[in-house]
Design a protein that fits this description.
Protein name: SRPBCC family protein
Number of strands: 8
Oligomer: single chain
Order of helices and strands: EHEEEEEEEHH
Shape: globular
Number of helices: 3
CATH topology: Alpha-D-Glucose-1,6-Bisphosphate, Chain A, domain 4
CATH architecture: 2-Layer Sandwich
Helix content: 25-40%
Organism: Streptomyces solincola
Radius of gyration: 15 Å
Length: 157
């Protein structure tokens, strides 16, 4: 089973601000993708080809117990301010994902999209037969993008 999910949102901030916030989150910022996901750079930089980021999905929220889904993303391509391509190379997911930023309304706002093509690996393959992993992924990503908008609005206020 391979998930092929696209989640998008329009954020009331220019692409440069959204790009910076995305990279900060992957460096461990924990400002807008929590409580569902946390990130930590393990080598290189997330915006450099070969950079690695450890991802933890907290099924009940960060620091709330519950199952933790851990995997590693390696950056495969970067178009600064526009696109970040990654490959899940270790842990409970394998496969590519992309983050794409498109200017909206003359660049005053940004459409951010995530194209997730991960496939469960190891014990998650069994869990994926009985749990809606794809649905949970989309719910968490949509919530994160909403939170991103709120964080960036708060910084400009």
């Amino acid at each position: 089973m391979t998930y092929d999910l696209i989640d998008e949102a329009v954020v009331d901030a220019p692409p440069a601000e959204v790009w910076d916030a995305l990279l900060a989150e992957f460096r461990g910022g924990a400002r807008w993708w929590v409580p569902a996901n946390t990130f930590a750079t393990t080598s290189g930089a997330p915006d450099q080809v070969g950079g690695r980021v450890a991802v933890t999905v907290h099924t009940k929220g960060a620091d709330k117990g519950g199952l933790k889904l851990r995997f590693t993303a390696r950056t495969t391509a970067v178009d600064p301010g526009r696109r970040l391509d990654i490959e899940y190379v270790d842990g409970v997911f394998r496969g590519p994902s992309s983050f794409v930023l498109d200017p909206v309304d003359g660049g005053r706002r940004t459409r951010i999209g995530m194209h997730f093509q991960g496939r469960p690996h190891g014990w998650l393959k069994v869990l994926a037969k009985v749990a809606d992993i794809g649905g949970e992924h989309s719910r968490a990503t949509s919530a994160a993008f909403t939170a991103l908008g709120g964080v960036l609005a708060g910084e400009r206020a």
